[in-house]
Amino acid sequence: MQTERIRSTSEARRHTVTRSAVEVFARSGYATSPITQVAEHAGISSAYVMKLFPRKVDLFVAAIDDCYERIVTCLEQAADGAERGTTEELLDRMGGAYAELIADRDLLLLQVQALAAAQIPEVAEAVRRGTGAITTLLTSRARTSERQAQDFIARGQLCHLLTATGAFDVDEKWAQTLTLGLRHPA
């Protein structure tokens, strides 16, 4: 019983630290976010964070994995709501759910920060793993063709650019062109 409680506490703290890492790394980036900042945000000692994540890159990868797990869960839930729908209906629901999800700018910005640090092999692998999970979900659950999966991912990246730069609020022709037909939560 004691071992189970310790494991449970460790898992809960690991989750807390990972969620704090998502927010800290999203806002400050990998290179400029010390582990002490994540520990402070999580309300846990730096020593304990280092026990859970011996290297800073391990913590960053855990944050990236958490981000992609949240995306996949969101897309799965959207697909559940239209299980018998056409591929187009499923993609529409999944796209709408994703637009709502990245309204949480931390998830959006963490993905941007991960791409900025993709020269680090562990980070690149985490991004590939997350992108692979999304692509597999699209082709299996939404029954997309390879081209449809590619287009969905590409539109997601365009949404990142437009959301991160505030282009949905820009009243200029170029912004109207790029935001045409895309949903953006207010």
From TrEMBL:
DNA-binding region: 34-53
Domain HTH tetR-type: from-to ranges: 11-71
Keywords per UniProt: DNA-binding, Transcription, Transcription regulation
GO molecular function, one term: transcription cis-regulatory region binding
PANTHER family according to UniProt: HTH-TYPE TRANSCRIPTIONAL REGULATOR BETI, HTH-TYPE TRANSCRIPTIONAL REGULATOR RUTR
The protein, known as: TetR family transcriptional regulator
Upper classification of the organism: Bacteria, Bacillati, Actinomycetota, Actinomycetes, Micrococcales
